[in-house]
Write a structure and sequence with these properties.
three-stranded antiparallel sheet; three-stranded parallel sheet; binds zinc ion; 2 domains; 36% helix; binds glutamic acid; Rossmann fold; globular; 10 helices; alpha/beta
Length: 284
């Protein structure tokens, strides 16, 4: 008998500020799609960055989402409860010889990246593309500024790999390509001494642990998806389907950010808007 896995998606905000219209769109879209598919809608609190996460923002997330009329599965997963899982995965990748200790400061990286070199992108989905200074240096773990993934070797292990995209901007099978990943993403950070895991490593593990089959999130994360799919393959985790949705922008076409408090759900609530008004504002 073929077991069918129920459609499972999630909304994963970081409790570092108020939810704004962009979050509302993402959460409602995922919620609606789960409902249509008779599936599950999970809420996850991405409080990886403990220096910025605040309890009152987490409380407000629950409050705003409930006000919007959303219902989610319980218990809610919080990243801060799973730091040891991230560490285990990091060790696994290290044992596979796919990681190295990087001792570069931000300034070192900028200086090396500005050295004359062939043209190519300077920035990728993980920020400035790392010039590779420490790749073969065998630095001591104690001196680490961060642990990086050796992108080329990792790709050689994992590719061929691909994912299915069903969003408005890209359609169908997206195949990962070694040279593209090396030149446009580079050796991404997997962990730092004060951070159990990078965003990339943590979300891949969280999504797998909670049985997420469909990731519905903003188009700003499309470029990062190749990193996630690569990590899934390396760690023997399933690759979900992806749907990178449109971004909600302000009147000037700028995409909303955490600091756009003027578009915070809480502000609209205060001003007397209804959840139906919010749906109309984001085009749902
Ligand atoms: N916490 C992440 C964010 O808010 C989750 C994104 C994702 O992987 O869906 O950007
Ligand atoms: Zn380095």
């Amino acid at each position: 008998m073929i077991e069918t896995v129920p459609f499972t998606t999630r909304f994963a905000p970081s409790p570092t500020g108020p939810l704004h219209l962009g979050h509302a769109y993402s959460a409602m879209l995922a919620h609606d799609m789960a409902q249509t598919a008779d599936g599950k809608f999970l809420l996850r609190i991405d409080d990886l960055d403990q220096s910025r996460a605040r309890d009152h923002w987490e409380t407000q997330i629950y409050d705003d989402l409930a006000w919007l009329g959303l219902k989610w599965e319980t218990p809610v997963r919080r990243q801060s409860d799973h730091f040891s899982d991230y560490d285990k995965a990091l060790h696994k990748l290290s044992e596979m010889d796919l990681t190295y200790v990087c001792t570069c400061t931000r300034r070192d990286i900028e200086a090396a990246a500005n050295a004359p070199q062939e043209g190519g992108p300077q920035f990728g989905p993980d920020g400035r593309i790392y010039p590779g200074t420490c790749r073969n240096a065998a630095h001591a773990f104690a001196d680490a500024k961060c642990i990086r993934l050796n992108m080329r070797v990792a790709c050689e292990h994992a590719i061929p790999a691909s994912f299915e995209e069903n969003g408005p901007d890209h359609h169908g099978k997206q195949a990962l390509d070694v040279e593209t990943m090396v030149s446009t993403i580079g050796d991404v950070v997997l962990a730092r001494p004060n951070m159990a895991a990078s965003y990339h490593l943590s979300v891949v593990l969280d999504d797998a642990a909670t049985g997420v089959t469909d990731i519905i999130r903003g188009a700003d994360l499309f470029e990062a998806t190749a990193i996630h799919v690569l990590l899934q393959k390396l760690l023997n985790l399933p690759t979900p389907r992806y749907n990178h949705h449109k971004l909600i922008r302000d009147e000037r076409g700028k995409r909303l950010a955490k600091r756009d408090d003027a578009r915070a759900i809480a502000k609209f609530r205060e001003d007397g808007a209804t959840p139906t008004d919010i749906r109309a504002m984001v085009g749902l």
